[in-house]
Amino acid sequence: MALVHSNHTDDSTEVKYFDRPAQTIDKMAFTFTDDLGCEFGPSKTTSTGLYEQGGGCHGKTGDANSLGGDHFGAGINPKQSFIGFMLYDRTWFKRDTYAVTIGGGRINNPGRYLVLIPPINGETDLTDPETAPGSRSEQLGSERSAPLRELLLAKRTPAI
What we know:
Helices cover about 10% and strands about 40% of the residues. By secondary structure, it is mostly beta strands. Strands 1-2-7-8 form a four-stranded antiparallel β-sheet, with no helix packed on it. Strands 3-4 form a two-stranded antiparallel sheet. It has a two-stranded antiparallel ribbon with strand order 5-6.
């Protein structure tokens, strides 16, 4: 991409607000995380002839070199920003033997800035040693790596 600047912040706060080891409910804590960011810069054509689309933090920014796209016209750069938050609360029971976590969050990501790959059992296809690019199972086309790739591709393909 032709973007030359980006601004991003990712902030988290963790607070333990209850700690009584002798009681049935012995500990409680919460965490709050917020993410804000954007990237911006002009569209350009590289020396090898590759066109790279620019973008803007607020969207609809003028750019004489922009060829446009599916959701924005020529001469315009798309919005490339991200805002999100998450809040989780965890309660531990019986001397940390059991715990319950409740929480959620919300994101707004109108462009392609900060693309998120959904995790599969805590791993992504890129970080799992068995399915990462260049791994032995990927080279052999293992039974385990094929469903992971199919699931990732299904998540990226819009329903008809």
